[in-house]
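Continuing the batch. This is chain 6 of the set; chains 1 through 5 are on the previous pages. Same settings as before, nothing changed between runs. Recording input and output for traceability.
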Amino acid sequence: MRIDENGIHLRQSDVDGYRKCPEQFRQKFFGEIEDPETDAALVGTAIHALIEHEGTNGHFGTVAEMADFACNYYCEEVDRFEREGIQFNQVKYPRLDRALDMVTHHAANWGGSDFRFEFLRLAANDELLLEWEFDVPLFTHTYNNPDHGTVPVWLCGTSDVVHKGVKVFDWKTAGNMQQYLPWERQRWAIQPTVYTYAAWHAGLIPDPSWVFEYKVFFSGDKPGEASPRTIGVTRGHNHVAWLKQLVAQMLEQAVSDVSPWPQRDDSALCSDKWCPVFAAGRCKGADISSWD
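Output for chain 6:
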């Protein structure tokens, strides 16, 4: 999230964060906390970097070269976090060698993927936009309290791949397929709404139905087992209308003084390992959590 003279710029993770924990969003809104980097996210980012490199610079000759590139990227980012004093939570892979094993595993799956060759063909034909950055207007919000006035709301982010005139897709890494059940993603996922709306607004994909595909590398997959797997979602203007209502709720709640404050403790992320609010000791519900 970014707030500047042009308004409030929200990422899809901000909206998802609000749905998980309104207090976390409120503290981000006022600049009290920032999300830490995590080892699980960095594994995915290393694979992103590998795929982007191939799409931009041409393919590697061997799987070993791919793994070396991705592992070097991971290690360089860990070094940068330390130099720049960035919080880095090593929770899923406490040991560096375990993290690099998973990076190597996903790199091998990418190297043996049939989709890789289709991706490289589309990239060579200039049919793809890779790491497309967007910052598009959503609506202008008028606060219920006139003291807060009105504010333009924007959606920002970076789309992994836009297949021009066709669809948007995004690379993911996950532990198991339960994290990406197709019906759940179609029903509730925010990222497809944000990313396809941005691409449509920029004239990159057509109406009436916008297609978003998750390309997921699962930890249990082996080379040749259809990895990455495709989970398709469709979106349209009705989903954007709902997103506007949800964002309006977020902005009103962030500046309200409602008591008791809406709070949750039913997420696996309610811990000092995963939530910066909890870790900072500023979770309004931490002292009365039913977990205790």
